[in-house]
Inverse folding.
């Protein structure tokens, strides 16, 4: 089966998480992604804690093979070269690569590409079909475009932290770098849309993706600006304001999510907890009433869950027709056969050691009926593909490659 982006070449100038996430997904769809690092810093990106290698995961290198866990995950399916974009010869080589490329993805701060002489107007003049995706913290325009951004500052700025946590408790960030991951996913979508548009118009375009915009677009689906006017706390904890009961409840040996989102599921909750007497009650049968009296609904499930183990609570609730899930931690995720059956929990590949025992990596999350997707190769060693790209693609001879390497251009 084919890969959807086979034949598409991406020049990857990204760093940290959001940009590499976007190009990782493009690689998973079959694009040839060429990661470009500066010659001086090429190895540094692969050598940062936590490390993974023959001895497992650690915060210090325990063997020469140890490489950054994040690098090993984020650069799967990509090629790696080095190039100094600040040197004239390096810039000239980049424009030669650009002539063969379809997409450029970068997540530099606003203004960096212009200072390098690689902003979209110049790229488009050299290759009108190029799609240039700029992934920034606050976008390429607007009064705050120049502000520095990291995942935690974006979660704060876009409002996610304000609604995350328990009522009356301090704001809390999500447990992972969610704004980076979401922005990288939006960037992939923007690139795909621009490539489709290019098929129709023959022209590439500039794709402007903001971490703040991306997170806000998902956050503001709920009327969070009205919560206080509705008399409810902005931070709702683990409940869902539109439904009741649905929350996280303590069991005899842990925690479980239990509850209902529909009338049929509420009937299942009543059966599971042995309160069939509530099925015909005009108040308890009304979603509006249950939402307004959520504390009473919570009390029913809280008391019931406290008498059962997590496995018992989840099994009984699901069997009766309610909503339920155990709260899986990393160990349980690694053992979840559903993830493995869908090729979502995979062994992390190392470029020299092969699959690393007991170290997992996520598979490609989109499945196709008539195409394949995924990562065909492990993360590359830094500069691993210099000869393939510069000699094979651009036709440079051995003497020229040696000269450029000695000059620090590649």
């Amino acid at each position: 089966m084919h890969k959807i982006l086979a034949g598409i070449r991406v020049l990857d100038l990204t760093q940290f998480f959001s940009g590499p996430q976007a190009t990782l997904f493009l690689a998973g769809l079959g694009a040839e992604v060429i990661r470009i690092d500066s010659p001086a810093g090429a190895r540094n990106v692969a050598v940062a804690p936590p490390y993974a290698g023959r001895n497992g995961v650690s915060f210090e290198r325990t063997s020469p093979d140890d490489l950054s866990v994040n690098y090993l995950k984020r650069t799967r399916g990509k090629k790696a070269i080095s190039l100094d974009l600040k040197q004239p010869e390096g810039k000239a080589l980049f424009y030669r690569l650009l002539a063969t490329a379809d997409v450029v993805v970068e997540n530099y701060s606003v203004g960096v590409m212009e200072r390098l002489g690689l902003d979209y107007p110049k790229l488009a003049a050299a290759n009108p079909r190029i799609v240039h995706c700029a992934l920034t913290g606050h976008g390429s325009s607007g009064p705050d475009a120049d502000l520095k951004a990291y995942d935690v500052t974006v979660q704060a700025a876009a409002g996610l932290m304000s609604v995350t946590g328990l009522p009356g408790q301090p704001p809390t960030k999500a447990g992972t770098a969610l704004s980076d991951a979401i922005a990288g996913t939006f960037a992939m979508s923007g690139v795909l849309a621009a490539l489709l548009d290019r098929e129709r118009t023959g022209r590439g375009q500039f794709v402007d993706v903001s971490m703040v915009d991306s997170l806000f677009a998902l956050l503001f689906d709920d009327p969070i600006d009205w919560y206080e006017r509705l008399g409810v706390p902005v931070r709702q904890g683990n409940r869902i304001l539109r439904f009741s009961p649905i929350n996280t409840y303590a069991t005899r040996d842990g925690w479980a999510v239990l509850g209902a989102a529909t009338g049929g599921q509420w009937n299942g909750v009543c059966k599971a907890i042995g309160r069939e007497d509530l099925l015909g009650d005009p108040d308890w049968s009304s979603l509006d009433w249950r939402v307004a009296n959520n504390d009473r609904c919570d009390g029913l499930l809280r008391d019931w869950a406290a008498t059962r183990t997590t496995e018992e609570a989840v099994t009984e609730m699901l069997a009766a027709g309610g909503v339920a899930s155990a709260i899986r931690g990393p160990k349980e995720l690694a053992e979840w056969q559903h993830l493995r059956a869908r090729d979502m929990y995979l062994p992390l590949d190392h470029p020299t050691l092969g699959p690393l025992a007991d170290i997992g990596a996520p598979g490609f999350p989109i499945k196709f009926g008539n195409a394949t997707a995924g990562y065909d190769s492990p993360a590359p060693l830094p500069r691993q593909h210099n000869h393939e790209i510069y000699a094979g693609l651009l036709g440079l001879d051995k003497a020229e490659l040696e000269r450029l390497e000695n000059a620090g251009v590649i």
